[in-house]
Amino acid sequence: MIGVILTGLLDDGTAGLIEIARKGGIGVIQDPDEAMCSSMPVSALKRDHVEYSVKLSEMGKLLNTLHDSESRQIAGDSMDPGDRYAPTDLTCPECRGPLSERQDGALTELRCRVEHIYSPESAIATHIETQE
After folding, report:
1. What is the pTM (predicted TM-score) of this model?
2. Cα of 108 vs its chain's centroid, Å
């Protein structure tokens, strides 16, 4: 599996890329210097789960090469104590259900019962949007 993060605001792609890397996949980001909005690729770089950072003009060639040469298998879902979520007093910005929290090293992930997933920063930004 190959996870790709392109230009974007906030950090919501980072959690997915970390999960892909955790299960043996490859992390690829757009070069932050050429991204229109660099916070998503920069966030992924800060979490150190990126194997390739390339310009868009090189992205297709890299993905084809990785697809042709890599034969990594992604491990099946296996819950371990680090995968457990703790209840919070927060609510999901989309469905208003309760959010639970999981810590994975430097990453904090918030998830509701219907599987909406947020970083703390993206949850706050989405709540602000819904209030307006």
Report:
1. 0.61
2. 11
Where do runs of H (alpha helix) occur along the chain?
Answer: 12-22, 39-46, 56-69, 120-131
Q: Are 107 and 121 in contact (CB under 8 A)?
A: no
Answer for the pair 81, 26: CB distance below 8 angstroms, yes or no. Answer: no
Phi and psi, residue 69, nearest 5°: -105, -20
pLDDT digits (tens, 9 = 90+) for 44-68: 898 877 999 999 999 999 999 888 8
Contact 118, 109 (CB under 8 A): yes
Name the maximum alpha-carbon separation found in the chain.
Answer: 48
Say which residues have a Cβ less than 8 Å from residue 124's Cβ, sequence separation at least 6: none
Tell me the C-alpha to C-alpha distance, in Å, between residue 72 and each of 23, 24, 26, 29, 125.
10, 7, 9, 19, 36
Q: Map tokens 């605001």 to a residue.
A: 9
